UniProtKB/TrEMBL annotation, chain A:
Membrane protein topology class: Peripheral membrane protein
Subcellular location: Cytoplasmic vesicle, Clathrin-coated vesicle membrane
Region (Disordered): 675-699
GO cellular component, one term: AP-3 adaptor complex
Protein name: AP-3 complex subunit delta
Main location: membrane
Pfam family, one: Adaptin_N
Keywords from the UniProt entry: Membrane, Protein transport, Repeat, Transport
Domain Clathrin/coatomer adaptor adaptin-like N-terminal residues, every copy: 20-580
GO biological process: Golgi to vacuole transport; protein targeting to vacuole
Homology family: Belongs to the adaptor complexes large subunit family.
The organism's place on the tree of life at top rank: Eukaryota
UniProtKB/TrEMBL annotation, chain B:
One Pfam family matching this protein: Clat_adaptor_s
Main location group: membrane
Recorded GO CC terms: endomembrane system; membrane coat
Organism expressing this protein natively: Piromyces finnis
Alphabetic keyword roster: Membrane, Protein transport, Transport
Family in the record: Belongs to the adaptor complexes small subunit family.
Keyword ATP-binding in record: no
Record protein name field: AP complex subunit sigma
GO BP terms, alphabetized: intracellular protein transport; vesicle-mediated transport
AP complex mu/sigma subunit domain span: 1-143
Length: 727, 148
């Protein structure tokens, strides 16, 4: 029987693309037998194949004993296979690890350098606390090995040993310090890497190494090493305030002098991340800003990305520095790389000030209104819904920040919000509508309100928003806001526009809108109609206009009554009835009748006010109320949870009009009797009222039924015969 | 530290998995898939860093990769590694492969998967960087291949 080699196996898998799993299953079966073979050649090749299959997702933990067998082979190439398999498949729970101590010890002390290296490398993956303790003496001795190839391996392995067996650190520290002076760069690199990792856990301990590290940095020509030392300084600097004074001038010189971008970037990044830059002088800060600018406009996408990342951390330290970057960050909004565009977008909020807000938002808007077939930089922003939505959110956030503190021109902002309502392919149209509502309700200034009303009428009349795509995407929901505001602030509408507006509100397109919008439409129609009646001076000649408009609206309300939603129907019906009554009973020329209209108008009285969620706290606590008294001990925990989850929210509530209940006079017995009589009389006159005289049961019997009288019907199911279709 | 090194092709087929976190085989495959899914949607003109995959370890974990013809070379690292340094290190790995296999192509890596591991072991040991010069790597690899 000829066993497959690794190459045969791979070739076989490639040839059996359709039946790959079956093929591998049969190979695994062969491997299971081969691996038990007494012939080390067969065993090793079987393990090699198994290790390959492990990469494809097949388990090999069952073969751990055979792995040890191959590891202990005399042949170097087999030993290699064994160690690779161990590194790949062993973990701390692998029980055969206990058998390995002597084997690894033997390999470590082998007189063949590459065998020693093999053991060191394997150990770096499989070291356990036990192995670490048993082997630490050998490892410490090997730190002085004649070959740098071994020394560097021992040093990096030590970090993994410390993680498993922390006591080893104290034993190894003096030697580790020595290795910083090793004549071989790769050993120094390994040592610095280990100290760098250790310093992330406990930086204070490595401050004594600063002079040595500083020397290495000054005379270093290896890029990787320089980067590691700079990173290490960034970890140490926060622990020792005096370090900044020494290290910052050196960083400045290196930053200016180096031609390696990766090193320059690391210096910048480390200064920012560690906060060292706070102590830098003006010249060094300017140098950093210049370098950062170079990164952000570099041709290499990686540098642009890293530049923006570093900048976003720098603005946390120096918020004003962003001013120097405004233009180049804005340019990055149409970067060829989507990740970079996002990074740039994230920076936008930090660069907004009162004077820059409008140009920034206009720039952001310019991306949103690009056409479907408009491409730039090989990117079609139109299709990237996620990015577009981020832009919209960004605009809303920067404009509404600190209660609209940065907005100097609200007419501009309202126009912008109206424009965003027509932006296609975004997720968050609702946020736009909410913001529009919020800002319009806050603006109480009369000319501004007039302006808002004009804009809302414009929105309502714009046929574009009724296009199918806008209705489907939810953009049309902005009309929810428009119709509501028009109804609520009807007093700011020019009376000449009202008739026209009533036509728009009852246009046939309205039936395409969602139910919640239609609801608002109906109420707006009523409010504006009443307003129109109150404000218009009717005389004999214009009385026809009253009749025409009223009948027109009554007819058009049919539109809403055909809606399948009951709430829409209900409201339409209600308004229709009111109009009907007005049409029949109201004489617009007769001033006395105006009271009827006024009383309807008074239904809509009251002023909307934004109320902060924390407003409740302003209410004084009554003296007799002890809020600290625990009324339910178990609930306390629950309350804590609720409190913490709401702590950061700042929502706004609209305060509805405050109702001052009039003092209601207590009716006398006489009055009560008369009222009852009247009611009974009207019951009798009403054809549709069912008399319950004969019914002897008390009324609440409906709620407390006699259990025995409930009829019980027995259902039997035979599932065997019925096909149940689950949807 | 380096947490994992992956080589996979444009279709996401693994060509090398070196995971330094001692994961079991299922987790390892899961992480590979996540990495591939994050990378495959990116265009070549995009930057070579991906941050913040929750599955792979959140904000502290970065994916740094290079795309050569049909293969992706991917390093998953934590914040103590330098992004640009790792990009250079990937270059060291690829140059070493190129020297060891003489004009390396995907097929070399497919059929000499174990050798690729041995080359990588000259650059990284247990997630720590061991060597950054490709000539040292090539020399050590060739020397060991000669041993009978």
């Amino acid at each position: 029987m000829f066993e497959k080699s690794l190459a045969d196996l791979i070739r076989g898998i490639r040839a059996n693309k359709k039946g790959e799993e079956d093929y591998i299953a049969s190979c695994l079966e062969e491997i299971t037998t081969e691996i038990k073979s007494n012939d080390i050649d067969i065993k090793a090749v079987a393990l090699q194949k198994l290790t390959y299959l492990n990469m494809l997702g097949y388990d090999m933990s069952w073969a751990s004993f055979h792995v040890v067998e191959v590891m202990s082979s005399q042949k170097f190439q087999y030993k290699r296979i064994g160690y690779l398999a161990a590194a790949q498949s062993f973990n701390k729970d692998t029980d055969v690890l206990m058998l390995c101590t002597n084997l690894i010890k033997k390999d470590l002390t082998s007189n063949k350098m590459y065998e020693t290296a093999l053991a060191l490398n394997g150990l770096s993956q499989i070291v356990t606390p036990d192995l670490a303790r048993d082997l630490i003496d050998d490892l410490l001795r090997m730190m002085n090995h004649s070959q740098p190839y071994i020394r560097k391996r021992v040093v990096v392995l030590l970090y993994k040993v410390f993680l498993q067996y922390p006591e080893a650190l104290i034993m190894a520290y003096p030697k580790l310090k020595e290795k910083l002076e090793d004549e071989h760069t790769s050993v120094v690199i390994a040592t610095v890497s280990v100290i760098c990792e250790l310093a992330t856990h406990n930086p204070r301990n490595y401050l004594p190494l600063v002079p040595q590290l500083y020397n290495i940095l000054s005379n270093c020509s290896n890029n990787w090493l320089s980067i590691k030392i700079v990173k290490l300084f960034a970890l140490l600097a926060p622990e020792e305030p005096r370090l900044a004074k020494k290290i910052l001038p050196a960083f400045g010189l290196l930053l200016e002098g180096t031609s390696a971008t990766s090193f320059a970037y690391e210096i910048l990044n480390s200064m920012i991340k560690s906060g060292l830059i706070k102590q830098a002088n003006q010249a060094l800060i300017s140098l950093c800003v210049e370098k950062l600018k170079e990164f952000i406009i570099d041709r290499d996408a990686n540098l642009r990305y890293l530049g923006l990342s570093a900048l976003s951390e720098l603005v946390v330290i120096f918020p004003k520095v962003i001013g120097a970057f405004t233009d180049i960050v804005l340019e990055r909004l149409d970067d060829i790389d989507l990740t970079i565009r996002r990074k740039a977008l994230d920076l936008i909020p930090s660069m907004v000030t009162k004077p820059t807000l409008i140009p920034i938002v206009d720039k952001l808007m310019s991306y949103l209104i690009k056409d479907e077939d408009e491409w730039f930089n090989n990117i079609n922003i139109f299709t990237d819904k996620e990015y577009r939505s981020c832009i919209v959110n960004n605009i809303l956030n920067i404009c509404s920040k600190d209660k609209y503190a940065n907005i100097s021109n609200f007419q501009w902002y309202i126009c912008t919000l109206c424009n965003i309502s027509f932006v296609e392919n975004i997720y968050n149209v609702d946020n736009v509508a909410n913001q529009l509502m919020d800002v319009c309700i806050r603006l109480k200034d009369t000319p501004l309100r007039k302006f808002i009303m004009e804009k809302m009428i414009e929105l309502l009349k714009n046929k574009v928003i009724f296009e199918k795509k806008f209705i489907k995407a939810g953009n049309s929901n902005v009309l929810y806001v428009a119709s509501y505001l028009l109804g609520e602030f009807r007093n700011s509408i020019d009376i000449e526009n009202v008739e026209d507006l009533l036509f728009s509100l009852t246009s046939s397109e309205a039936k395409e809108l969602s139910d919640i919008v239609q609801n608002n439409y109906i109420i707006a129609i009523l409010k504006i109609y009443i307003y129109w009646l109150l404000k218009s001076d009717f005389n004999e000649s214009s009385i026809d206009a009253f009749k025409q408009i009223t009948t027109m609206i009554m007819q058009k309300l049919q539109l809403f009554m055909n809606n399948s939603g009951i709430e829409v129907q209900d409201r339409a019906n209600l308004v229709l009835e009111i109009l009907n009554k007005i049409y029949e009973q109201y004489d617009p020329i007769n001033d006395v009748d105006k009271d009827l209209i006024k009383s309807i108008d008074s239904l809509f009285d009251g002023e909307l006010k934004p109320v902060a969620i924390k407003a409740q706290k302003m209410v004084p606590v009554p003296n007799e109320l002890d809020l600290d008294h625990v009324i339910n001990e178990e609930a306390q925990e629950m309350l804590n949870e609720i409190e913490s989850s709401f702590a950061d929210e700042s929502r706004y509530f609209w305060m509805s009009r405050v109702i001052n209940p009039k003092q209601i006079k207590e009716p006398t017995k006489q009055e009560l009797r008369e009222a009852r009589k009247k009611r009974e009389q009207s019951k009798k006159d009403n054809l549709f009222y069912l008399d319950d005289e004969d019914d002897e049961k008390p009324q609440n019997s409906f709620y407390e039924p006699d259990i025995d009288e409930i009829p019980i019907v027995k259902f039997t199911y035979d599932f065997g015969k019925i096909n149940i279709i689950l949807i | 530290m380096i947490q994992a090194v992956y080589i996979f092709n444009n279709q996401g087929k693994p060509r090398l998995i070196a995971d330094y976190r001692n994961l079991d085989v299922q987790k390892s495959q899961e992480f590979l898939k996540e990495t591939y899914n994050l990378i495959k949607i990116r265009k070549d003109n995009q930057c070579n860093f991906i941050e913040g995959s929750k599955l792979l370890g959140g904000a502290n974990t970065k994916i740094i990769y290079r795309h050569y013809a049909t293969l992706y070379f991917v390093f998953v690292v934590d914040s103590s590694e330098s992004e640009l340094g790792i990009l250079d290190l990937i270059q060291v790995l690829v140059e070493s492969l190129d020297k060891c296999f003489e004009n390396v192509c995907e097929l070399d890596i497919v059929f000499k998967c174990d050798q690729v591991h041995y080359i990588l072991d000259e650059i990284i040991s247990g997630g720590m960087v061991l060597e950054t010069k490709y000539n040292e790597v090539v020399y050590a690899f060739n020397e060991q291949s000669k041993i009978k």
